[in-house]
Design a protein that fits this description.
Blueprint (H helix, E strand, L loop, with lengths): L6 E6 L3 H12 L4 E7 L2 H11 L3 E4 L8 H11 L4 E6 L4 H10 L3 E4 L4 H12 L4 E2 L1 H14 L12 H11 L4 H8 L3 H15 L4 H10 L9
Parallel strand pairs: 1-2, 1-3, 3-4, 4-5, 5-6
Length: about 220
């Protein structure tokens, strides 16, 4: 039986072996419990609506409804539910589509089980968690779009740059506040203002922006 201290996870993957392996591993964790399993995106959306999980671990390529579509529908119905994409694919198009749909994490299926658990915990804490290879791919894409020219970051104040550095490291609002000796509420206000100023839609995009503008070396890697 799950309690309030546990992260409630829904696993959505069309391979039963993957679902079983994840459940067995998560059952060994004191802070994570699996509340349901779905074999495709459509079933995942319905179960997320019924079970109200904290985090959904989502495959991308599935029958009936693909993962990107399912991510968008779950986030539209339950914005508070965090979603971590777990897939075998690292193509730029798939990565970007998943993040833009609302995923807050992206891990690969060949990752160690502990890495998947870390991604779940990070998502639950409101942090961004990207596989290092994914972070490098997106950073390279953003650099290529600049056509070799640096984009100015003058629109940000020095304090806002400090916040962005910490965002790029995947810190939560609470951790940013502690690092900068400000309240969590003030940190949240800074993050909201920065997203609006830069025209970014999520903390994930902010973390990638920080990497691109060399405020941090890499995101999660």
């Amino acid at each position: 039986m799950a309690d309030d201290s546990q992260i409630r996870v829904l696993i959505v993957d069309d391979h039963s072996v993957v679902r079983m392996g994840l459940r067995v591993f998560f059952d060994l964790q004191d802070d994570i419990t699996v509340v349901g399993e779905a074999a495709d995106g459509s079933e995942g959306v319905a179960m997320a609506r019924r079970l109200e999980p904290d985090v959904v671990l989502m495959d991308l390529l599935m029958p009936n409804m693909d993962g990107v579509t399912a991510i968008g529908r779950i986030k539209a119905e339950r914005p508070e539910t965090e979603i971590v994409t777990m897939t075998s694919f690292i193509e730029e198009e798939k990565v970007t589509a998943a993040l833009e749909a609302g995923a807050s994490g992206y891990v690969l299926k060949d990752a160690e089980a502990e890495e998947v658990a870390a991604a779940v915990r990070a998502a639950y804490a409101g942090e961004v968690h990207l596989d290092p290879a994914v972070a490098r791919l997106l950073a390279q894409r953003m650099r290529a779009k600049k056509s070799g020219e640096d984009q100015p970051i003058e629109p940000l104040t020095e304090r806002e740059k400090d916040v962005m550095r910490l965002l790029g490291q995947g810190m939560s609002n609470k951790e940013i506040g502690a690092a900068l000796f400000i309240t969590e509420r003030t940190a949240r206000t800074y993050v909201s203002n920065i997203l609006g100023k830069l025209g970014l839609a999520s903390r994930t995009q902010a973390a990638l922006w920080a990497v691109e503008h060399k405020l941090v070396e890499t995101a999660r890697g």
